[in-house]
Amino acid sequence: MATMKTILLIFVMAISTAAVISVHDNFFEKTKTSEKYTHIHLYVHIAFSGSNPSAVTVVHGPTNKTLEFGDITVVDNPITEGPELSSKLIGRDQGTYTGVSRDPESSKAVNLISVLLVFTDGAHKNNTIALTGRDPIFSVERELIVVGGTGAFRLARGYSIWKIYSLRHRLGELILTGEAVVTARTKS
Hints:
The protein has about 190 residues and is of the alpha+beta class. The chain has one helix spanning about 1-30, and strands at about 35-45, 55-60, 70-80, 90-100, 110-120, 130-135, 140-150, 155-170, 175-185.
């Protein structure tokens, strides 16, 4: 009797496994994908002060100095096609910069950046790209990782290189130029 139950159990498990494999294979046959590479060049305008700041420190570190370990800055910066703020607005750079370096020298300040590039116009309208990475603030160049996105950039991966285009320290204005290389899956 026990042998019959064992044989029946093995039979049921084999049938169930075959059904799952069949459904699984069928799913991937219907959703074949290919990869598309996209190169994006853009400008991000950051205003740390003035009448309409786009980057606001909402939490200060223990010493209340600028660029301090523990600072959390929330950003909603305009993204444009050209370096002038008056050039075509194509989106917003939204997210946070978090001070993560405990080094007491401000020249060695480092932020952890976690932002979304939210495209509101142009070729990538209604899509987003998620970026994160280490930002040594006073470096000439920094690299952020593409970790995902929405719309055409679903399951995106890649990298972006950022450089300071212009810095007007007294006015609290910074313009970054960015190049992103993004790979995302597209349905065939």
